Automatic annotation (TrEMBL):
<feature type="transmembrane region" description="Helical">
    <location>
        <begin position="405"/>
        <end position="428"/>
    </location>
</feature>
<feature type="transmembrane region" description="Helical">
    <location>
        <begin position="381"/>
        <end position="399"/>
    </location>
</feature>
<feature type="transmembrane region" description="Helical">
    <location>
        <begin position="212"/>
        <end position="232"/>
    </location>
</feature>
<feature type="transmembrane region" description="Helical">
    <location>
        <begin position="183"/>
        <end position="200"/>
    </location>
</feature>
<keyword id="KW-0812">Transmembrane</keyword>
<protein>
    <submittedName>
        <fullName>Uncharacterized protein</fullName>
    </submittedName>
</protein>
<dbReference type="GO" id="GO:0005886">
    <property type="term" value="C:plasma membrane"/>
</dbReference>
<feature type="transmembrane region" description="Helical">
    <location>
        <begin position="73"/>
        <end position="92"/>
    </location>
</feature>
<keyword id="KW-0769">Symport</keyword>
<feature type="transmembrane region" description="Helical">
    <location>
        <begin position="299"/>
        <end position="323"/>
    </location>
</feature>
<keyword id="KW-0997">Cell inner membrane</keyword>
<keyword id="KW-1003">Cell membrane</keyword>
<feature type="transmembrane region" description="Helical">
    <location>
        <begin position="343"/>
        <end position="369"/>
    </location>
</feature>
<dbReference type="InterPro" id="IPR001463">
    <property type="entry name" value="Na/Ala_symport"/>
</dbReference>
<comment type="similarity">
    <text>Belongs to the alanine or glycine:cation symporter (AGCS) (TC 2.A.25) family.</text>
</comment>
<keyword id="KW-0813">Transport</keyword>
<keyword id="KW-1133">Transmembrane helix</keyword>
């Protein structure tokens, strides 16, 4: 047992040391590969979410782009935005907030890459539903099915068990701190509600997530605005504090520099999930006309999660000054910061908000975990057993100590993230192909508004043996000059001198 404990600590420390390095490096890599897709196509990405046709699925079996966005956002927008930000500030200081922003800015490119690849490599199951994600592009794109299996195990465990334990834990601790509700009572109630919801299909889960995300996000932003109105004179000094502490290397404070970076990036990852490999599993289930569309959608999700929700949390905590007392941590710190600023009603409002944040994440996490399970089997009894196990871990998380839950999730998160980052870097040529194809068609649409942007795998013979079912992306081939340009672009990216005989 001592050996296992030592090995666990060594593995956890090693992976969590690599993670804050790998995330920004990969993000920077895709910033270069896509020529700053998160900047030059941000407006296009935002408009793609607001389009009317984004709300409706192309077919009856799969979810719409908007539903995929909201389900992904439901998992992103959770207690990581409240507890994770507060925890990062307490451990790494105010400077950790800057590194959250930094990781998200680069992570938007990684998020685009992973979700676009998930669309490219998606396939259909027996029911005609789209399935896909890192396990699929590991197996088909890189011919590493065994690594895909490892990733799926990590995905199912991390989201089904570890992350859902955290969400339940934050609900029970918040209710206990604010209203002295016994954690056992909360555990029983939240487990029963979870079971009632997740014993359904993906479309039902998506509808639950969609209805909750909008309400809780608006409510939390309103509470944040109320706090900032009260503490308006501290807003600018707090921003100055964040930037100053992010690079403070002076004696006595410099020790926090590395910690600020580490926890800023780690807790930022827990919140926005950019590069983790989770969002692609939902992104793949959406019926879209071009792989880049879900890349855009999930990229905007990272932006909203970090630069809106997490920033509000940071300002709530830092402008109140409660964090400096060291009496509170995690969600309790954010709650007490609200109470200190606006009064007792803040405790009731925050308890409701945290419940909605956490519960919607439990629902969204289950959708992710289920996609990992489906990579192994479609057996309904296995799914039932897995769903019961998820409910059990929700209960265990509600009655456990917070730090033990965070430690387990950090290790699982690190393993699946590093596997996914390796995969998307190895498949960078496909990402570049997707971006270039979309931009070329976007320019054509600018000249001719009636042009519909659709991905045609027939134009890229280099993809023929690299994707599961070319029929998903196959369109009627038009041998025009524009199509010839598409083929030349594909050959240039992959460095292959192919001819039409290869088709």
């Amino acid at each position: 047992m001592d050996f296992l404990a030592a090995f666990y600590k060594w593995l956890s420390d090693s992976l969590n040391f690599l993670l804050p390095i790998a995330l920004p490096v990969v993000g920077l890599f895709f910033l270069i590969v896509t020529k700053g897709v998160q900047f030059r196509l941000f407006g296009t990405a935002f408009k793609s979410i607001l389009r009317v046709d984004a709300r409706k699925s192309i077919d009856e079996k799969n979810i719409s782009p908007m539903q995929a966005f909201m389900t992904g956002l439901a998992s992103r927008v959770g207690t990581g935005n409240i507890a994770g930000v507060a925890s990062a500030i307490m451990i790494g200081g105010p400077g950790a907030v800057f590194w959250m922003w930094f990781a998200a800015l680069l992570g938007m490119a990684s998020s685009f890459a992973e979700s676009s690849l998930a669309q490219l490599y998606k396939t259909r199951n027996k029911e005609g539903e789209f399935v896909g994600g890192p396990a699929f592009y590991l197996a088909q794109g890189l011919k590493l099915p065994f690594v895909g299996v490892i990733f799926s195990i990590c995905l199912a465990f991390t989201y089904g068990f570890a992350f859902n334990s955290i969400q339940a834990n934050q609900i029970s601790n918040t209710l206990h701190s604010a209203f002295n509700v016994e954690v056992l009572t909360t555990g029983i109630i939240i487990t029963a509600i979870t079971a009632a919801v997740i014993f359904g299909n993906l479309k039902y889960v998506s509808r639950i997530s969609t209805s909750m995300v909008g309400v809780m996000s608006v409510a939390y932003i309103l509470i944040g605005l109320a706090v900032l109105v009260v503490n308006y004179d501290k807003i600018l000094p707090v921003f100055g504090l964040i930037f100053r502490e992010a690079f403070n290397l002076e004696a006595g404070v410099g020790a926090l520099f590395g910690t600020a970076i580490t926890y800023g990036i780690k807790r930022g990852l827990f919140s926005n999930e950019a590069g983790m490999g989770s969002a692609p599993n939902i992104a793949a289930t959406a019926a879209t006309r071009h792989p880049a569309e879900q890349g855009f959608v999930q990229m905007i999700g990272v932006c909203f999660d970090t630069f809106i929700i997490c920033t509000f949390s940071a300002l709530i905590v830092l402008t109140s000054g409660v964090y400096s007392t060291g009496q509170y941590d995690n969600a309790a710190l954010t709650t007490q910061s609200v109470v200190h600023s606006v009064g007792g009603w803040g405790a009731i409002a925050m308890s409701i908000i945290i419940f909605l944040f956490a519960f919607s994440s439990i629902v969204g996490n289950f959708a992710y975990a289920l996609s990992g399970l489906k990579y192994f089997t479609q057996n309904k009894w296995v799914r039932v057993g897995f769903t019961l196990a998820v409910c059990a871990f929700v209960f265990i998380g509600a009655i456990s100590k917070p730090q033990s839950v965070w430690d387990a999730s950090d290790l699982c998160m690190a393993i699946m993230t590093l596997i996914n980052l390796f995969a998307i870097v190895m498949l960078w040529k496909q990402v570049k192909l997707i971006v270039d194809d979309y931009i070329r068609q976007k320019r054509k649409q600018d000249k001719n508004p009636e042009h519909v942007i659709e991905f045609n795998s027939d134009l890229y013979p280099v993809l023929r043996d690299k994707i599961y079912h070319s029929s998903i992306w196959s369109r009627k081939l038009d041998e025009s000059h524009d199509d010839q340009i598409h083929k030349e672009v594909g050959y240039k990216i992959f460095g292959e001198n192919q001819t039409d005989n290869h088709r």
